[in-house]
Amino acid sequence: MSQMNQIRIPRDSNLRFVPMMYFLPQDLISRCPTLRKLPRCFWEILQSDKLKAVVESDQFLLEIMDASAALAFRHFGFRGWKEHYTGYCPVWQLSYSLPLLVKLLEKEIGFGLQAVYEEPFIPFFKPEYIVETMSRIVRRAIDEQGWQPLFSMLFAKCRVMRILSRGTPALAVGFIGSGITRVGTKSAC
Question: Residue 151: pLDDT band by 50, 70, 90 thresholds?
């Protein structure tokens, strides 16, 4: 591939998140007004100042972050939706690590800026494929970033809190030292 065919995007540009937008399932895109109005062709976005302005907007960033976090959160192994947790919860914060998710999406399936640049039209992926791929991406993020000890501690704390809330604090001690399984292999909270 020659240098002429390679796309270069500034690091501070929201354009670097477009591959994640094209990876999102159609039902999730349909609930995001800004994402919904963007074409499934990256070339069209690059050639239109109006569409580039949409991608560079705060609303695009908010929607792509919320949508990708919603997609990733359930694979961290915690019950419920990301909306059940606050912005102070480490798992909630990790689900919003959009630059990392985009980077790992490219590593996992080769779907990055260059791939979307070379395609004239990006069809929607099958929902099952998206779920399976996002599960692998989250597991990879946990492994590569060394987050497993954090998750083990959070799972233990969550189990203790559930037991205490049931009014049986004596049982909590038995769970603190118990081995916590890897993320995704056992339901937590």
Answer: confident
Please give the model's pTM, rounded to 2 decimal places: 0.79
CA dihedral 71, 72, 73, 74 (to 10 degrees): 80
Domain ranges of the chain: 13-145, 148-189
Q: Please give the single-letter amino acid code of residue 83.
A: E
> 99-106, long-range: CB within 8 Å, 24+ apart, which pairs?
99/16, 100/141, 100/145, 101/20, 101/68, 101/72, 101/137, 101/141, 102/16, 102/17, 102/19, 102/20, 104/137, 104/140, 104/141, 104/144, 105/19, 105/20, 105/23, 105/133, 105/137, 106/19
Contacts of 106 (CB under 8 A, 6+ apart): 19, 112, 113, 115
Residue 9 has φ and ψ, to the nearest 5°, of -125, 135
pLDDT per residue over 19-64, tens digit each?
999 999 999 999 999 999 999 999 999 999 999 999 999 999 999 9
